[in-house]
Design goal:
It is a single chain. This protein is mainly alpha-helical and 70 residues long. It is 83% helix and 0% strand. The protein is elongated. The relative contact order is 0.05.
Length: 70
């Protein structure tokens, strides 16, 4: 075996190869349309708002229960 075969690839070639792979994978991604992205954003914001109200309500209930016990 020659010494060349045992050498590790240079750092710059490894980094270059990594980013080429990243770029190839990003080309395979099925990106959402603007309409889909808007719909997903609305769903996330609505769900976040609803969960905020639920947690706030539970907090008030438990706060009052602890106030009655203490």
């Amino acid at each position: 075996m020659s010494n060349r075969e045992n050498e590790k690839p240079k750092f710059t070639s490894r980094v270059s190869s990594y980013f080429k792979g990243v770029r190839a994978e990003l080309k395979k991604v099925n990106w959402p349309t603007k309409k889909e992205l808007t719909n997903y954003t609305i769903v996330v914001l609505a769900t976040t708002f609803a969960m905020t109200l639920v947690i706030w309500g539970l907090d008030l209930i438990f706060q009052n229960l602890v106030g009655l016990i203490v």
